[in-house]
């Protein structure tokens, strides 16, 4: 193999073979002993969970501070609403926090994703980037690199040809060749990935296929100990709807069953005029999804950026997310009332 005479494997395979050979371990852990391991359990209860925070107030509110590791998080929207914009913005924010970001695209070219992130981070309209003089462009990128300790790698795969196995190999290659280990992974987007369990020629329905892809991506998130962010399309009935529901998920209801967080991105003509986009919680394992069920964020499509709206914009929404305060007197009166009833 080192001489290049192996027909099946080249020299690039040697590091992974050595890594596998040196990765032998003996794990004595056979489970959590409830009565004996109580101190460890107590420490876990009080340990601060490592999360990737958003730069948007309401997204942090509904997730209790950001995206935890080992999770699959999905944005649901119709064509052209802003799925890729949402992911590019969250990726840009994570990079500016000093995080390592891996952006996997199966739809747009690497350069197109980089162009969107340039518009966001360099504060330049996406149409004007091509007109920037090279000296100014170099200066902006150099200034940007001084503000963050993180790195961003964008990897493109052909549509419907890459699956979690390819992504796992990519993580190994990046770790071996570039000493790069991502803190968060974006997959743009889930429905046009392949499944490692079902080959392209397999005669299976879309429910099984998409559910399989979602489970494999969530398994990769657990294995790599990172949050994965991806997106999916709405059905035809959900496209253009002002109140997208979880049942409007295209192709497979197995996706929302697998995801930890699922947000719908909703755009109407009225919201477009206001420069806003509505976010609706469809599923949330981090917090109560009935609190702040709907809220709006500002959107600047020219700079591929989202931003917080003023509180007055949230007050016009039916589910504006105000938590009801605990009223001791009201609760006491209710208890007295029920205690006098005879059943």
Verbal overview:
The protein is of the alpha/beta class and about 350 residues long. It has a domain at about 70-265: P-loop containing nucleotide triphosphate hydrolases (Rossmann fold, 3-Layer(aba) Sandwich), CATH 3.40.50. The protein has helices at about 15-20, 40-45, 55-65, 85-95, 110-120, 135-145, 165-180, 205-225, 255-260, 270-275, 310-315, 330-340; strands at about 50, 65-70, 70-75, 100-105, 150-155, 185-190, 225-235, 260-265, 275-285, 295-300, 305. The strands form two sheets. Strands 5-4-6-7-3-8-9-10-11 form a nine-stranded mixed beta sheet. A two-stranded antiparallel sheet has the order 1-2. Helix 8 links the parallel strand 6 and strand 7 (about 225-235). Helix 4 crosses helix 5. The termini are far apart. The model is unreliable at about 325-330 (pLDDT under 50).
Question: What are the key terms here?
Answer:
alpha/beta, Rossmann fold, 9-stranded mixed β-sheet, two-stranded antiparallel sheet
Write the layout of secondary structure elements.
Layout: H1 13-22, H2 38-45, E1 51-52, H3 57-63, E2 67-68, E3 71-77, H4 83-96, E4 101-105, H5 110-122, H6 134-146, E5 152-156, H7 164-178, E6 184-188, H8 206-224, E7 227-233, H9 254-258, E8 261-266, H10 269-274, E9 276-284, E10 294-300, E11 305-307, H11 311-315, H12 328-339
Parallel strand pairs: 3-7, 3-8, 4-5, 4-6, 6-7
Antiparallel strand pairs: 1-2, 8-9, 9-10, 10-11
Helix pairs in contact: 4-5, 7-8
